[in-house]
Amino acid sequence: MSLSLLANNPLFGFSPDGRGIYIFGLEIYFYALCIVAGMLLAATLSALLMKRRNMSPDFIFLLFIVCIPTAIVGARLFSCLTDENLGIARFFEFRQGGMSITGGVIGGVGAGFVVCLIKKVDFLRAADCVVVNILIAQALGRWGNFFNAEVYGGVVTDPSMQWFPFAVPISNLSGYFGVKSFSDPNATWHYAFFFYEMFFNMIGWALLFTFMWYRKKKPNGLATCLYFVWYGAVRTVMEPLRDPEYILSRGGVPWSHLFSILMVGLGIAACMLLMIFNFLKEGSFVGSKRGDPCGITNYLTPYKNDEPYFSKINMFGSNYPPRPPKEERKKKKSEKQTEDTSEKPPENNNDHNGDSE
């Protein structure tokens, strides 16, 4: 943004069109704020769930750093490939809109798999703690569609049904978005599909988060698969009801709708496969008849010298000793590093080795 543009904008305040706020003269859209808020909340809840399920909560920071950028790239790339109004040449025009949640999920989950592979962490166990919270990030992100006056359904002609959040006013006047649309008496009311999707995403998140908070038994990965079933089902119903302007259909193919159906089918198939494999290995579709029925008994961490301590949140926290004082932990860590160094074999310092030839 040029200095002249910054100079023409107020340092702080709301945008005249209702789409964002000004901070030091730079306009930040509410859409972006909703997305960022959703990401931060999802990361916080994922760390809490990791701690609950006998994992190092610090692992979420590594996943956050890697997966968020790849999710953004995936979301933009999916839109550019499937939206007839976009293209690869407009990939970097982020401020002009065009971010597909479906592409973001594919990019983020794919990057998470690679991170877990490199760090030798059970991907399904980690994914169960993270993927379910994508739903609440998507729910908050949908409010960005309200502020941008997009992702709505058909016209609501009955005056008795023209109330928010059942319906939302869409103004034809230039510069009327979000809350400001309510001030236009001639605004056209549409079904608020962004709100419906947000509502069902919140329900799905509450169910899956509760499921993960109390569930211990094998196999890991069920919650991840159920996420795809739930979210795919919601999108499968909502997608064809939207205004055609917001349906990604390059080449005449409704790509978002197609991928939503695939999510449901593949999610159900994955759930069945997980339980079948667990039966073959453990003698039971859920849990185990041959050994430990829990899939989270062992403390899981990708970091060296990361030891578990007692925690009321951790379902296995009573198995661990109380957390020692900070000074004692530093001393113990230093002693361990010294011990590791002393165990290394001495280097061969014979400078004349091989000189006889």
Give a topology summary.
Elements: H1 3-8, E1 12-14, E2 20-23, E3 26-29, H2 30-52, H3 59-82, H4 101-119, H5 123-130, H6 134-148, E4 167-170, E5 188-191, H7 193-214, H8 222-238, H9 255-282, H10 326-342
Helix pairs in contact: 2-3, 2-6, 3-4, 6-7, 7-8, 8-9
In words, what does this structure look like?
- The structure is a single chain.
- The protein has helices at residues 3-8, 30-52, 59-82, 101-119, 123-130, 134-148, 193-214, 222-238, 255-282, 326-342, and strands at 12-14, 20-23, 26-29, 167-170, 188-191.
- The chain has 357 residues and is mainly alpha-helical.
- It has a three-stranded antiparallel β-sheet with strand order 1-2-3. Strands 4-5 form a two-stranded antiparallel sheet.
- Helix 2 (30-52) packs antiparallel against helix 6, helix 7 (193-214) runs antiparallel to helix 8 (222-238) and helix 8 (222-238) runs antiparallel to helix 9.
Structural class: mainly alpha
- One letter per element, helices H and strands E, the order comes to HEEEHHHHHEEHHHH
Share of residues in strands: 5-15%
Q: Which regions contain 5 or more consecutive residues with pLDDT less than 50?
A: 1-7, 349-357
Rg, alpha carbons: 26 Å
Strand line-up across the major sheet: 1-2-3
Distance, first to last CA: 68 Å
Q: What profile does the largest beta sheet have?
A: 3 strands, antiparallel
Number of strands: 5
Oligomer: single chain
Spatial shape: globular
